[in-house]
Amino acid sequence: MDWxxxxxxxLVNEILSVPAYLIGIITAVGLLALxxxxxxxxxxxxxxxxxxxxxxxxxxxxxxxxxPLGVMIQGATGxxxxxxxxxxxVGIAQEHHGSQVAWLMILGFAVSLVLARLTPLxxxxxxxxxxxxxxxxxxxxxxxxxxxxxxxxLVGGALLGILMVSLPALAHPWTRRxxxxxxxxxxxxxxxxxxxxxxxxxxxGGRRSRSTEELRLPESLRFLRDSMVxxxxxxxxxxxxxxxxxxxxxxxxxxxxxxxxxxxxxxxMMQAVTQGLQFGIAVAVILFGVRTILGEIVxxxxxxxxxxxxxxxxxxDAPIVFPYAQNAVLVGFISSFIGGLLGLATLSLWLNxxxxxxxxxxxxxxxxxxxxxxxxxxxATGGRRGAVAxxxxxxxxxxxxxxxxxxxxxxxxxxxxxxxxxxxxxxxxLIGYGASIGSWxxxxxxxxxxxxxxxxxxxxxxxxxDVGWDPSPHRLAPARADGGETDSPxxxxxxGRQPRISPPRGAPAPPPRP
Length: 514
Description:
3 strands, 13 helices
């Protein structure tokens, strides 16, 4: 049996947990189903793989740019606590539960394909690393509750498969408001934050809150319409301000925030400027990777839809929505981080003394990726005010939910890290407390929770998604070609679908509706 375990670990750790390879395989399968030539299949699969590698390269640059900023923020504020980092806790858990995680992930992916084929939830979740993260969370929670390895794999695999088809459906009305059609869905376990952001945008936006992409600037500031320039400049300002506060508080000790340190004050401040500029480059790389992958994965899915899962919709990582509202990404990130700071203050002054909840420090990486996407969702339903509110709500959620999740992680709660995104929080807490009942009672509660999520998603799909419900019908229709605006929402088509929202310049162009 050792070879079987080794094979499953290789499949999970070296292929299925690497989004680029998974996307490449799926693209190749889709192109084969379309009866494309060998050259087209190989070329399309490679381009899709390269697109995801570009996203990964951009993400690596983002992390590298944000690491010293996180150090400076902690030094400037004096805060100490737990920093949610998905990769860190997954790495720690692999030492104790590696084989169970592998089998659970394989079973969960198989269950998701069966559900996508047999239910109205035609979503195929392709964000491989998040599948691994959720598989690890479910393994930790069920194992901590005392269930055997076999039960953990079977029950956890079923739950994982349910989440992979259900959460994209629950978010799809809001995602479709962004993209204008059903060509893609969100496949990222920050779904609760995105839905909350869309709802917050709808609540505060009003009819005439302009989009973040419609900034009216004087001629001398037109250069700020370039999202890469605006993002880099904003991050430079943030870096310089935080660096100045940090060095004023800590003196030359602050120089160690950067790799290799800084020689003097001038060098320290210029390194801060350089890191801000690097952040702008990182975001540009991510956006280019998104455009590259969409150009290949959407046509390939037409083949998969016709063969394996009729009507399949690819559910992809959070940056997939970034090109649709690039200014909203930055607005959402900053607002989410502010929400995280307020959440930290609430934990420090109230919830930690009263309930013993851990202090959750605002990790800049989760706030950028989930906060940026939340800004896009909030902007889609509420314009600029919606982007601010959506990011802020997301920031609160990814502060309070990880604090509660630590209570059900057993010994791993002492690892000084935890899962960061919203769906790990709320689902992990529910499953953790349900499973803690133990024996058959715990399994019944956990199973009921899974079935409740699945039933809710099917209901939303039939009653909300399929009828073309628009989460923000009060919003103005997209600007006309002559530069004017309509005074009322554009009408739905004969099938009840809302008109496509034109993405900003450079955004991926989905294929025509069937």
